[in-house]
Amino acid sequence: MSASTIIFYIVSALVLVFGAMSVFTRKIFRAAIYLLFSLIGIAGIYILMNMDFIAALQVLIYVGGIIVLIIFSIFLTHQAGDKLPKPLFKRIVAGASMAAFGLIVVLGVFYKTAFKVTTEAGIDHSARSIGRQMLDYHHHGYVYPFEIVSFLLLAALVGCIVIAVKIQKK
Amino acid sequence: MGSVSILLLMFCGFAFAALAIGLGNKLSLKRYNPEKGEAYECGMETQGTTWVQFHVGYYLFALVFLLFDVEIAFLYPWAVVFKEIGMVAFIEIVFFVLVLFLGLLYAHKKKALSWM
Amino acid sequence: MEQVPLAHLLILSSALFFLGIYGFFTRRNMITMLMSVELILNSVNINFIAFNKYLFPNQLEGIFFTLFIIAVAAAEVSLAIAIIINLFRKFNTVDVEEVDTMKF
């Protein structure tokens, strides 16, 4: 057991604990902060897998953007110090049993499936090779989704502004 | 070898923070006094809690920031390989940025970027 | 990192996924439901990256899927929050069960 595997288990325990705290806590602002720690831990897991670019994206977009937006939305709609009401017992039982059942099924499928793990080194997953394949337009390139993403972002921007400016005028 | 040092660094970081906060808490002298809790020297007495509702303008700024953040994420791998691909990459990125520039123009026209 | 078996990464991602599912079904507050959706999307991303790293190290497909999932998640969150704020202005609540009147 080398040091990097120990780091992996520590980080994944942190991810799961903070994820659970963000789901179970009854203070909404704390839920957002726990979610932030969980997402940072996931970035750490990407770094341990040598996926530096994806880890940077995770920190840049999820931690720096999405969580900030969620926190702003909490401030816009809540007295953020307030406690959320307790979920109904019926609902806890239903949700927990559904989640446990799904987890057992999925883990059972994973256990049955024989994944062919290769040990060959493979290509490097740096931003250079990602960019080369992203801008490529004949062999398995991703230039078409790349251009479509710009339309998606444009549509999101226009939609949000249409909705939010209407609020501002009120 | 490298990851042993990272593990050690992680441990030392946690230990240092815990030690500093814990010892500071343990050793310091605590005497509560209402005068000490006030805002220092000047200004009005603050009223209410700090948990107040924000104006919707904050949301618009965060939104525009987030969407252009995603654009940067796609620009970075392009910038790394721009030199070796050349003209084709340039046309692709011009199209990409132009579409998002339309969004920026729309935001500007709807006065989403002007404060309040 | 080579010593960590693929199964452990899959256990991590599926535990995170079903935490998100649990939160999505028990919470009635729209913003916390949105946070649960974020957990679900992140567990999917871990899965894509792990499969790319362990099963197909000669390709980049998992990375591209993660990249586009992150972009789509950003757009989805911003729109969802715009809708939530609009609903809050109309109904003065973010509870999904109280928002049950349609416009017409």
From TrEMBL, chain A:
<dbReference type="GO" id="GO:0005886">
    <property type="term" value="C:plasma membrane"/>
</dbReference>
<feature type="transmembrane region" description="Helical">
    <location>
        <begin position="31"/>
        <end position="49"/>
    </location>
</feature>
<keyword id="KW-0874">Quinone</keyword>
<keyword id="KW-0812">Transmembrane</keyword>
<keyword id="KW-0472">Membrane</keyword>
<dbReference type="InterPro" id="IPR042106">
    <property type="entry name" value="Nuo/plastoQ_OxRdtase_6_NuoJ"/>
</dbReference>
<comment type="similarity">
    <text>Belongs to the complex I subunit 6 family.</text>
</comment>
<keyword id="KW-0520">NAD</keyword>
<feature type="transmembrane region" description="Helical">
    <location>
        <begin position="142"/>
        <end position="165"/>
    </location>
</feature>
<dbReference type="InterPro" id="IPR001457">
    <property type="entry name" value="NADH_UbQ/plastoQ_OxRdtase_su6"/>
</dbReference>
<keyword id="KW-1133">Transmembrane helix</keyword>
<feature type="transmembrane region" description="Helical">
    <location>
        <begin position="88"/>
        <end position="111"/>
    </location>
</feature>
<protein>
    <recommendedName>
        <fullName>NADH-quinone oxidoreductase subunit J</fullName>
        <ecNumber>7.1.1.-</ecNumber>
    </recommendedName>
</protein>
<feature type="transmembrane region" description="Helical">
    <location>
        <begin position="6"/>
        <end position="24"/>
    </location>
</feature>
<dbReference type="GO" id="GO:0048038">
    <property type="term" value="F:quinone binding"/>
</dbReference>
From TrEMBL, chain B:
<dbReference type="GO" id="GO:0030964">
    <property type="term" value="C:NADH dehydrogenase complex"/>
</dbReference>
<dbReference type="InterPro" id="IPR000440">
    <property type="entry name" value="NADH_UbQ/plastoQ_OxRdtase_su3"/>
</dbReference>
<dbReference type="GO" id="GO:0008137">
    <property type="term" value="F:NADH dehydrogenase (ubiquinone) activity"/>
</dbReference>
<keyword id="KW-0472">Membrane</keyword>
<dbReference type="Pfam" id="PF00507">
    <property type="entry name" value="Oxidored_q4"/>
</dbReference>
<dbReference type="GO" id="GO:0005886">
    <property type="term" value="C:plasma membrane"/>
</dbReference>
<keyword id="KW-1278">Translocase</keyword>
<feature type="transmembrane region" description="Helical">
    <location>
        <begin position="85"/>
        <end position="107"/>
    </location>
</feature>
<dbReference type="InterPro" id="IPR038430">
    <property type="entry name" value="NDAH_ubi_oxred_su3_sf"/>
</dbReference>
<keyword id="KW-0812">Transmembrane</keyword>
<keyword id="KW-0874">Quinone</keyword>
<keyword id="KW-1133">Transmembrane helix</keyword>
<keyword id="KW-0813">Transport</keyword>
<keyword id="KW-1003">Cell membrane</keyword>
<comment type="function">
    <text>NDH-1 shuttles electrons from NADH, via FMN and iron-sulfur (Fe-S) centers, to quinones in the respiratory chain.</text>
</comment>
TrEMBL record, chain C:
<dbReference type="InterPro" id="IPR001133">
    <property type="entry name" value="NADH_UbQ_OxRdtase_chain4L/K"/>
</dbReference>
<keyword id="KW-0874">Quinone</keyword>
<dbReference type="GO" id="GO:0030964">
    <property type="term" value="C:NADH dehydrogenase complex"/>
</dbReference>
<feature type="transmembrane region" description="Helical">
    <location>
        <begin position="63"/>
        <end position="88"/>
    </location>
</feature>
<comment type="subunit">
    <text>NDH-1 is composed of 14 different subunits. Subunits NuoA, H, J, K, L, M, N constitute the membrane sector of the complex.</text>
</comment>
<dbReference type="InterPro" id="IPR039428">
    <property type="entry name" value="NUOK/Mnh_C1-like"/>
</dbReference>
<dbReference type="GO" id="GO:0005886">
    <property type="term" value="C:plasma membrane"/>
</dbReference>
<dbReference type="GO" id="GO:0050136">
    <property type="term" value="F:NADH dehydrogenase (quinone) (non-electrogenic) activity"/>
</dbReference>
<keyword id="KW-0813">Transport</keyword>
<keyword id="KW-0472">Membrane</keyword>
<keyword id="KW-1003">Cell membrane</keyword>
<protein>
    <recommendedName>
        <fullName>NADH-quinone oxidoreductase subunit K</fullName>
        <ecNumber>7.1.1.-</ecNumber>
    </recommendedName>
</protein>
<feature type="transmembrane region" description="Helical">
    <location>
        <begin position="6"/>
        <end position="25"/>
    </location>
</feature>
<keyword id="KW-1278">Translocase</keyword>
<keyword id="KW-0812">Transmembrane</keyword>
